[in-house]
Every structure is written in C-alpha cells, then in structure tokens.
Design brief:
A: about 425 residues, 6-stranded mixed sheet, 21 helices, 13 strands, about 50% helix, about 15% strand
Chain lengths: ~425, ~325
C-alpha cells in the first residue's frame, strides 16, 4: 500500500510539474505584468557607438525612478533577435530600428506605440528633427519613431598616407580616376580597396552607388514598388558591367570574401596601409576612432562616391541610412518613462555626444555644435553632403522587407565573386 | 494484490547471496525496473522533444513570420522546398560534412583513445591537454579560428607558401576544409574519451594470450582492440552523424553559409529561412526533414551493425 501511495504521489507531482512548465511556456502574448518593475529595456544595435547610448542612459537614470537598461545585441544578428523577441514577454520597451520597412510588420501586428499623442504634448519631439528624416518612420500618417544616433551616408574613405606615397594627389572624382587609382595602387602591391565581403552588406554598397549613379534613384524605387522589369533594363546591365570591370581590375584584391567589416578586418586593412580606399558608412569614423585613434585623427581621408559620366543619377545623390530610430513597444509598462527618455534625443547633450564620436544627429540644433565635433571638418563635410543631396537612398537590405534580404545579399556576393553572371543577378532580383 | 504477487516473485531485498548476481541470468523478469522509473525521463522527453516536434510539424503547413497568428497554407511550403535548389544542395553538403567528419575524426580518436588508455609516462597530462578544445564553446572556437584565418593579419598572411592569397574562407573548397578541420579540432577529444573508456574495458588477458602466440602490436590492435571497440565505434559514429546534421554555430560564424551558398548546410538553411527571412513555415519543414533523415540514419546504423541485439563484445569469453 505504501508503495502505491508513493507511485500516486510521484505521478501527481510529475503531472503538476509538467503542467507548470506548460503554463510557463504559454504565458506569452501581452505579458505586461511579467515585465520587471521600475525598469525599461532598450534593445540596441551593438557597435562602437554604444558608448553614447550608455552615457545618455546614465544621465537619464540619475534623475528617473524608472531605470533604463541597455541591451546591446551584436549588429549582424540584431534584426533576427528583435523579430524573435518582439512578440514575447522579454520584448524590449524601446528598440532601435531603421524606420520605414524595418518596422512595418511590427506596426501591422499592432506592436508599436504611435507617438502622435506624445508629439501633441511636446511638439519638440517632432519639430526638433529635420522633417525629411522624421518622415521616414511615419507609417500610414502616424509617427512610430524618433530619430536617434546620426545620419549615415556611405562615403569613400581613404588612407591619405598611402595615396600620397603612391603619388595620388586627390581622391577620385570620376569613375575613370577611380580605375586609374586602382591600377596605380595594384602595381605598388597594395590592395586598392578594402572590402569586408564576408559580411555581404559592404559589397551591397557598391551596387547601391553604381546603380544610383548609372540609372538614377528611380530604378530602385520602381523595383521596390514591384516593377521587377527594371532589373533587366540597359541601365541595369550597364551598372553590372561596370561592377564586373572594377572587380576584374583587381580593385578589391582576391581574398575579399574572407574579410569582414564586423570583426575589424576591413578597417584594419585601411588603417594599416595595406589598402588605399574603403567604401563605408559614416560610422567608419567612429569605428576607426575606437580601434585606431591616431589613424582616425590624422590619416583617415574621405570623399564622395565618384561621378559616372553619362549616368542618369545626380552626382550628389547619397546612399546609406538617412537615420536610425527609437520606437516604443505598445505593451510597455512605463510609456511615460519611455517618452521622457526619447526627449533626450533632441537635447544638446545628446547632439554634443554624438558629434563627438563623429555621428551627425538630424536635429535642427546640430549645426551649432559642429565646431565641437571630434573632427569639425569631417562633421561639416558630412552635414553639407546630407544637406545638398537631392536623394538619400535607404540601403537596399533595409528598404526591402526582411524576407528579401537573404536573396539580395546572396546574389550580390555571388555576382562579385563571379559565381553568377549578369543574367543570374537579374533573375535573383526579379524573384523578389 | 499485485503488491503481494510482486513481493513473492522478488528475491530477498537486502543482503542474501543473489545480490551480486548479474541481471538477466535469473531467468525471470523479476528484477526488471517498472515503468515508474522511466516516468520522469518520459515526461521530460514529452515536454521538450515530442511537444515541440508536433508544433513544428503543424507549423510546417502554415505561413508565419513570428508575429501574430500562423496562417494555414496546406502543402505550399513543402512544394517550395522540393523545388528549392539550395535545399537539395544543402542535403548533399550535410552528407559530405558527415562523411568527411567520420573519415577524419574516427581513426584519429581511436588511435588517441587507445593510446590514452595505456599507462605511459606523462599520458595523463597530455590527455588533459588534448581535452581542452572540448571545454570551449563552439562560438568561441569559431571566433578564434575566424581571427586566426584572417587572410591579411592571420596565419594565411604569414604562410603564403601554403595559403596563397589567403582566400581560405572565400572558396567553397577552402571553407569546407576549414569547417571539417575545426570540427575535428573541436570534437576529436570527445570521441577519444569514448574510445579511452572502451579500450580500458578490454581484458588484458587477451593481449597476454596474443603475446604468447607471438602477435605484434599492430596485429594485436587489428585483431583484438578494433573488434572489441565495435560497439563504441557505432556509438561514436551515430553521434557524429547526428552532430554533423546539426552543425550550425561554426558555419554561422566562420562562413555564414558562404561563399554564396557554398557551405549552406541543411541546419544553416533552416536557420536562414526561419530567423533571417522570418519564414517559420519553411524553416519548420526543413527541421522536419532533418528529424526524419537523422532518425533514419540512426536506425540504419543500428540495424546494419547488429547493435540492436545488445550483444556485448565480451560474450564468449
């Protein structure tokens, strides 16, 4: 009898345990009550820029009862991680994003808090930012994000010492000059252009610029709206031919597929003088500043992407990220605290800190802080670049919804390394 | 009622001469443990293996991005999967990884394991050193090798006579070679451990008899050690097959499935579909394919090898 009692108890215990675990597994969904008390979490793209985010949070926490916690997520996996947790009890209260396409599916799933009421209470939340940038996080007429960090145009960076030693007086202004520089550097045994093709997105930047210069910004806009025919157009083929020409000229060396930007490989090539140029977003400056401070201060040069003669695109057009945004989770327990935190994004301290690491916030008060930048010349150059650009194209992998990015990045990297030809690339892009 | 019956059949509980008797020779099922003992493990298995498996099976017939509710789409994911050239290629690649993994790791771990089972000088210290890679996480190992293999600042840059331009991870052959090598570096210690334990179980009397008959070291190894290790080899190979099918972290960090789709093995393809494209339906379908294949391979290995008969290699001694 005793034995039976024991069996019965253990079965009951096991069932209770099983049930408990199942319950724990099912308590997803809203789960607002499971969020920690007096704490809000910010999901953040992890990179060299995190120092400023941490400073802003420290400043906020000094006076606030609700404390902000920074969750740094390694850059390459940021989007995957965010999508995986956004609909769970561990979702962040505030999250970094690229605006527009990158949060559309969250908005559709009713997970993002519209900020219009906050803007009504505090018009500065809108008016303090450049309208063209603020608009990028407006979906169906409602604002879902506040610009943060800085605008990120892609520029052609160079190692000015390497160029001077090779007898190159100025960065290339035209495509022909770029090809000539490539030849000079190659003959000297230097990799002309550093490329972290292992990450794939740095390769995409070459496509974005060459397509924009050759075919104008319209081609990509049409493609994004579903007109996949444009990929087979003569302009598209011309752009692909030029990319092929550049790769075949040895512009990137032969081992670019083994190099990454995210582990510091490509920036180290430029800083160590093993490469002459690198096409990269404006964050190249803060990356070099944290890895190779002396190089960033004295040797790092920069210029616009070269003009392409006969191309349809304006030579002042930019590609990159107009800005990043903070959005608020609809299920947050402390929307007011989150709102107060967002107010810091137009504060003088925020602009100053960002400018100090080479970022360029898109607030209306930015211009008056440019002199206080780590490199005022760089800050002003970038500011004017953005101000004068007739078009600022969002990166293809951010403009398309996530399900397309794997296809784009694979096609781009395969075309660069010669695994597919023009027709293969066009076919891949038309499959989106 | 059952209690008394069981009690009657059960031999004296404590002490008694039967205590040391090997189970199974008593001729009855008297000492077989009841189902109750398997209950905790069964509940655990059900919760963390069966329930998710069923959930994945259901998901494979839906379209779901991870947000909101899954939409039922019938066989659409499966049709797309069979038409997907990357899927077929990934299966071949996975098979290649498994075969290369077994071919490179098994001989080495048998030799190391048998050696480590001996009582040579410094053996314990060297064994401990060999064991170190197993203590590191796959992610750490991958980051380590990624840095070591940087074409400009790592080993290839210093040894251009061997690596050429250093584009090791940028070619399919190079990337596969690196992944196989890193897998070997990481998992040989584990399989060595299995063989070490097994080699120690071989009765020394066999070797003594062989010596008297004039058999040399090689002959003893081939005729005694290898046959005695049969069950361990099967165990080790099954673990390699299942491990090879689910290799993932090293691919993600070292090659990202590239160059192109050159190292997109099935497990990585599954991750890419589910967590990069946010197409959990297709990802689940790939997961099910993996489950079916690994189960089938395990069964096949067990069947072909006669492992299911649970015969000890000591039988007949």
């Amino acid at each position: 009898m005793n034995k039976h009692g024991w069996v019965a108890r253990s079965i009951a215990g096991g069932a209770a345990l099983a049930l408990g675990l199942t319950m724990a597994g099912c308590s997803g969904g809203s789960g607002a009550s499971s969020r920690p008390e007096n704490e809000i979490h910010v999901a953040m793209y992890g990179d060299a820029g995190n120092t400023v985010e941490q400073k802003m949070i420290d400043a906020f926490n000094a006076t606030s009862q609700v404390k902000v916690v920074l969750d740094k997520i390694p850059g390459a996996e940021y989007q995957s991680k965010l999508q995986t947790i956004i609909d769970t009890p561990t979702a962040p209260d505030i999250f970094f994003n690229w605006g527009g396409g990158s949060i559309k599916s969250f908005v559709d799933a009713d997970l993002v808090l519209p900020l219009d009421d906050f803007v009504k209470e505090d018009p500065q939340l809108k008016d303090a930012f450049l309208p063209s940038v603020f608009e990028k996080a407006v979906i169906d007429g409602k604002a879902y994000g506040i610009p943060m960090r800085g605008t990120q145009p892609v520029m052609l960076f160079n190692n000015s010492k390497v160029l001077a030693d090779a007898g190159i007086a100025a960065p290339p202004a035209t495509w022909e000059e770029l090809l000539a520089d490539v030849k000079i550097l190659k003959d000297k045994g230097i990799t002309p252009i550093a490329l972290g093709a292992g990450d794939r997105w740095p390769t995409l930047m070459w496509f974005e610029y060459i397509y924009d210069r050759v075919a104008g910004e319209g081609l990509f806009q049409k493609a994004l709206q579903g007109d996949t025919g444009v990929w087979a157009s003569p302009e598209s083929r011309k752009a692909l031919g030029m990319i092929r020409e550049l790769v075949d000229a040895g512009a990137f060396g032969t081992n670019f597929d083994s190099v990454k930007f995210t582990d510091g490989g490509a920036p180290a090539l430029l800083a160590s003088g093993k490469a002459g140029f690198e096409l990269m977003g404006s964050w190249e400056y803060s990356t070099q500043q944290s890895n190779n401070a002396a190089f960033a201060a004295d040797v790092l040069g920069y210029s616009e992407f070269p003009k392409i003669e006969g191309g349809l695109g304006d030579a002042n057009n930019l590609v990159g990220n107009p800005n990043n945004f903070y959005s608020i989770n609809k299920n947050t327990r402390y929307p007011e605290a989150a709102r107060d935190f967002l107010k810091l994004m137009y504060s003088d301290q925020f602009v100053q800190e960002q400018v100090a690491i080479g970022n360029l916030p898109t607030t209306t008060n930015t211009e008056k802080f440019l002199d206080k930048a780590a490199d005022p010349e760089y800050a002003k150059y970038q500011f004017n670049l953005v101000k004068e650009a007739p078009s600022f194209q969002l990166s293809w992998d951010q403009a398309y919804p996530p399900e397309a990015t794997v296809t784009i990045l694979t096609a781009v990297s395969q075309f660069f390394s010669g695994q597919i030809d023009e027709d293969g690339f066009i076919k891949a892009m038309q499959s989106l | 009622m059952t209690t008394t019956l069981a009690n009657r059949r059960r031999p004296a509980r404590a002490g008694g001469p039967e205590r040391g008797r090997p189970a199974g020779r008593s001729g009855s099922s008297a000492s077989r443990p009841g189902f109750v003992w398997a209950l905790p493990a069964s509940i655990f298995f059900g919760l963390f293996a069966l329930v998710p498996l069923i959930a994945v099976a259901v998901l494979s017939f839906t379209r779901w991005s991870g947000l909101g509710d899954p939409k039922f789409v019938g066989l659409k994911n499966w049709e797309a999967l069979f038409a997907d050239p990357v899927m077929l290629q990934s299966l071949w690649l996975s098979l290649l990884f498994i075969v290369l993994g077994i071919v490179t790791q098994t001989p080495l771990s048998i030799l190391l394991g048998v050696w480590a089972a001996g009582n040579q000088k410094n053996r314990a210290i060297l064994s401990a050193i060999y064991f170190v890679p197993l203590l590191l996480s796959s992610a750490a190992i991958s980051v380590l090798w990624r840095a070591l293999l940087d074409p400009n600042f790592g080993i290839p840059g210093q040894m251009s006579w061997l690596f050429g331009d250093g584009n090791v991870l940028g070619t399919q052959t190079g990337a596969i070679a690196v992944l196989i090598f890193v897998g070997m570096w990481q998992f040989t210690p584990f399989h060595t451990l299995i063989y070490q334990g097994a080699a120690r179980q071989i009765p020394p009397v066999l070797y003594q008899a062989a010596s008297i008959d004039g058999a040399g070291t090689v002959r003893q190894f081939v005729s005694i050690t290898l046959p005695q290790l049969k069950n361990s080899i099967i165990t080790s190979v099954i673990l390699m097959v299942v491990g090879g099918l689910t290799t993932f972290e090293t691919v993600l960090i070292l090659t990202n499935g590239g160059p192109g789709t050159g190292t997109t093995i099935t497990a990585f393809h599954m991750y890419q579909e589910a967590f990069r494209r946010f197409d959990f339906g297709t990802g689940s379908a790939i997961a099910l394919v993996l489950v079916v294949i690994s189960t089938a391979i395990s069964f096949a290995v067990v069947r072909v090898s006669g492992y299911d008969k649970m015969r000890s290699s000591m039988e007949g001694l």
